[in-house]
Amino acid sequence: MTNATRARAYAPATVGNVLCGFDVFGLALERPGDVVEARRCSTPGVVITAIHSDGGRLPTDPNSNVAGVAAGAVIEAAGLQNVGIALEIWKGLPLSGGMGGSAASSVASVVATNALLDGGLTMEEKILCALAGERRAAGTTHSDNIAPSLHGGIVMVRPEQPGVAISLPVPCGLAVALVHPPLELGTGDMRSAVPADVPLERAVSQWANCAALVVGLYEQDWDLIGKALVDEVAAPYRTPHVPGFDDVRAAAIEAGALGAGLSGSGPSMFALCRNISEASAAAAAMTGAFDAVGLRSADRFVSLVGSGARVIEDAP
Description:
The protein is α+β, with helices and mostly antiparallel strands. It contains 10 helices and 11 strands. The protein is globular.
C-alpha cells in the first residue's frame, strides 16, 4: 500500500449496445465523464463527503451509491483490512440519460481507490468491482458500459464472463455524436420494456448485424458498419418513449452519419460517423430535430472513440 493521501480518476461516458449488440457491445467517448477522488481517512470503511452537479439527488450513503459500493469492493478484492476511504464525486454525466453515468462513477471510483491503495487489481478484477456498484444502480451485472468506460475503445462482453472485455478495432477517424434531450428514462424501466422472448426472425437478424459490425470494424468497411447499425431487439419497445426518435435518426443519417439510434436505454441518441466533421454535422442536425418536437436545450457532444478511464491530477 502506498503512502499517497489521495488519488483522482476520470471515467468517460459510454454508448451501450451500439444498436445491434444488446448487452454485448459498448464504446467509450473521450468526453464527457465523471471524476471521483479517493482520500485516506482514519475511520475504516467508505464514506462519501460530497457529490457535485447532481442537484442533490444522489445518495451520500456509501451503501446506496454506486461509487461507494465499488470502492468497498476494491478494498475487499485487494484483501485490505481496516482501511478508510473518503470519496468526493463530480458528476459530468446526466442522471438516467443513457450515457453510462452510473458506470462512469463506478469505474472512476474503482480506478481512484485502486491507485490510492496500490491494490494491484487486474483489469478483470476492476470490472468486477465496478459491476458491484453498477448492480446497485441497475440491479443487473451487464458490463457493456463498465467495460468500455474502463478499457476505452469498442469492446464486446460475454454475459457468462462479465469481467472479460474483448477489444474490437476502432477504424481510423471513427467519431461519435451524442445528443441528450431534456428527458430521463430509468434503466430498469427501459429494461423491463423489452420482452423476454424475441421472435426468431428478429433474433436471426440481430445476430447477423452483430457479426456484420465486427467484420466491418476489422475491415474498416464503412458501408458494412452502417448496414449493421440496426437494433431489432430493444429499439422497437424503447424508441416510443423518445419523442421525435425517427426524425432525429433521419436527421443524423441525412447529415452523413453511418447509423444512429438510442445510446444504451436512452433517451440520449448517438450517431457513428467517419470523422469529427461528420459527427459535428450529425450532432447539430439531431439537436435541431429534437428542437422541432419541443425538446429544446438538448446537450450535444462530439468525440472520437475514447481511451477509457485514467488517473488524473485536477478535478473539474
